[in-house]
């Protein structure tokens, strides 16, 4: 299982704390230092639609020029933004086999990880 995120993000910290407390093993992928592979983004888009991981509540989104926001109205236009400004990706991203989840929701985590 891989957890994608930024270590200083409060939501990522909550998720990591929960996973560790429940002894769930994972690899952490730091967007800030390792970036993100476009193939990951394409797979996530195919599974969930890019709108599921485009964080429009982020400061990064609010700081985009109108032309960039307009470009992000479709995945092909949003892809370069995701690659350049990884903080615009909703975090954490949990990838565990076929399970893909964006954000932290204790109920969803319990359902997936503790009811296996």
Detailed description of the structure:
This protein has 116 residues and is of the alpha+beta class. The chain has one domain (2-114): Glutaredoxin. The chain is built from seven helices and four strands. It has helices at 10-21, 31-34, 38-48, 59-63, 66-71, 75-84, 106-114; strands at residues 2-5, 27-30, 93-96, 99-102. It has a four-stranded mixed β-sheet. The model has no long low-confidence stretch (mean pLDDT 96).
Examine the secondary-structure arrangement and name the CATH architecture. 3-Layer(aba) Sandwich
| CATH fold-level name | Glutaredoxin
N-to-C order of helices and strands? EHEHHHHHEEH
The chain-level structural class is alpha+beta
Walk me through the topology.
Blueprint: E1 2-5, H1 10-21, E2 27-30, H2 31-34, H3 38-48, H4 59-63, H5 66-71, H6 75-84, E3 93-96, E4 99-102, H7 106-114
Parallel strand pairs: 1-2
Antiparallel strand pairs: 1-3, 3-4
């Amino acid at each position: 299982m891989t957890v994608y995120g930024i270590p200083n993000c409060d939501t990522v910290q909550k998720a990591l704390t929960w996973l560790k407390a429940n002894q769930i093993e994972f690899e952490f992928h730091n967007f800030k230092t390792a970036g993100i592979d476009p193939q990951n983004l394409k797979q996530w888009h195919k599974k969930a639609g890019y709108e599921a991981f485009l964080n429009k509540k982020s400061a990064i989104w609010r700081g985009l020029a109108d032309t960039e926001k307009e470009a992000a109205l479709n995945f092909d236009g949003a892809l370069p933004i995701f690659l350049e400004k990884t903080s615009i990706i909703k975090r954490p991203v949990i990838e565990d086999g076929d399970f893909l989840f964006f954000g932290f929701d204790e109920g969803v985590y319990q359902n997936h990880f503790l009811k296996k």
